[in-house]
User: What shape does this take?
Amino acid sequence: MSEITRSHFDPRNVRSEFPVLNQELKQGRPVFLDSAASAQKPRAVIDKEREVEEQYFANAYRGRYSFGARIDEELEGSRKKIKAFLGAASDSKIVFTAGTTLGLNQIAFGWGRGRVLAGDEIVISSMEHHANFVPWQQLAQESGATLKLLPLTEDGRLDATAFEYVITKRTKIVAVCAMSNVLGTENPIGDLARLAHDVGAILVVDGAQSVPHRPTNVAADNVDFLVFSGHKVYGPTGVGVIYGRADRMEEIQPIIFGGHMIRRVSLENSEWAETPARLEAGTLPIVQAIALGAAIDWVNQTGLASMHAHEHALLEETTRRLMEIPGLTIYGPSPEYKGSIIAFRIADLHPEDLATMLDRRAVFTRHGHHCTMPLHTLLGVTATTRASFAAYNTMEDVDALVAGIQFARQKFRLT
Assistant: This one.
């Protein structure tokens, strides 16, 4: 386990715990600025996965022999850690999934199908990732409901003045990200929950970007459902989480059927097990779910508040320095309204060409529409470059990004 303590946060010590970042590539030391897509893994998580595979792997909830009992204990321990990390009241309302996308589809069609009817409204925003856009679009088309967008301000925040006329008595579901994966915008989840509940609607929160970077308290915000992915919070790929408020979780129906989620099966009918088992059909991502608990331990020990403060300092410095570059446009609000993501575009330099030039200097950014085509359409561009920060990034990484951009501008004769 990490030796970092909450009382002393040093990003260089943090970085030292990530083996992939402590290698020398042919183009130099890796500067990883794509953590919004997937964060790197600390040694504690890698070691936990290896421990499970090498020492006591078995299928979960299947056998009472010692390996099976150990696996069950570790899985339920991970579930309890996630419950506490999210501020949930009960670990029985924490469901393991394959990730945020599957979780949102489970809610859209396991809760929404049969409840959302023709004439109802589903409210989302144009800043949503396709995973929190397309399922609601498809549910609306299937049910005859209307899909509505919360408008954005010019600087990329939700327009609070529009909330009360967009969210109406016809609204059944409000589904928004807590933090945009492009603009970095942090949304007022508590306010949206109150407005949704005032009209009898539910609030579904895509926490994929927010959970790794700022404290989450689902009970205080009174959200109905929240989902996130393990690989963005320093954990493994292939595992995610649905949190559901107690009453809502009992309303959701399975959309995947098979083993483990069954109480009784006959030729005529099937009965489901209790939550969470009834929403965890088949073999779970066992090793990944256990290692996600190790990732939560690592974040807690490192200190989420310290991590957030460090990342925000990187964001502020990057914003300041990028604004000095001629022809560069930053999308989204100023740093006080956003998390550690910065999306930008340089006039006469395509984001893919910039990404290629940055890669020559071992600076790894994301380019493209970032699974947010409606947002990019609204912005009037087909693609942007995105730099996203995590606890292991340093001010030297900011220097490398800025130097790489200047290098690209020189190569393309933009200076």
In short: The CA atoms of residues 134 and 180 lie 16 Å apart. The domain at 48-300 is CATH 3.40.640.10 (Aspartate Aminotransferase; domain 2). The chain has 14 helices and 15 strands.
